[in-house]
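Issue 218. Parser rejects a valid record. Input:
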Amino acid sequence: MSQYRFKQSFSGDSSLSNKLFDLLEVTFPGLSSLAECARKIGASWETASTPFIRFHDDIAITHVGVLEIPMQIMGQRLTVGGIHAVATRLEFRRRGYYREVMEEVLEYCDCFYETLVLTTSQPEFYLPFGFRVVKEHIFKVKCGFRGSTDSFRRLDFTDTRDCTLLHRLLETRAPVSNIVGVVKEKPLFCVNEASRPLYYAEDLDLIACMETENTRLHLFDLVTTQICPLKNILARMPQLIEEVVIYFSPELLSVKDVQTFAHAFDETVLMVRGKFTAEGEKFMLPRSARC
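Output the parser choked on:
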């Protein structure tokens, strides 16, 4: 018999996913559709997350999920535990249920992970459990560059070839940074990014998570087997780019005169529990890996 009261199994209960998302959709409107987008391209939430759920009359009232995130931190490969989708129904709050579930989650995680991470707009909920805020940064590069070709196309996940392409590159990707980067992770990436525009340059064999805003390029992540210089990416974009805002440490992009700014991504902070060797470095956990 399991030592855990709240640890559940999606494979052991076919109705569990519906019960969980009934709770999560109240707390995080739209999350169900993001998870469905990921599921359709072969990266399901249920295969990646270990759910810890407290029930009341067969209704899920509190949930804390645990993901495994393969990362590269300060040049070292390790598997980090990601705490995500933390939710309690409004009418059951302030009764100690969240604390009970979180304490069990941490007991479980301490057996498997030296490091835990999460991102949140409410850090006060996690400070009592040994999590601490780690400062993050964005990076800005002035460039004034107009490419000579239009090599990027938007991926279309109704085309199985583009799904296959995404899976191949996620499985073989290089970390976008040796300070903090992610490798061989699919479900979290797909929940965060599959509903957004993703662009592919065939000659670079590179998927870019990026957005343009007039002459400013926002670069959130790169999925490729070898990170190339930023100028190679810009050369394949026909519009004028005067500034690039990079949401990860750009040391592999061969850029100069980088301005660094402390930044809270979408008003969230990164929190860490346990060992984290990149603490004090200038970096940001990419959008695709935030949980």
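Fixed in the parser; the record now loads. The domain at 16-134+266-279 is CATH 3.40.630.30 (Aminopeptidase).
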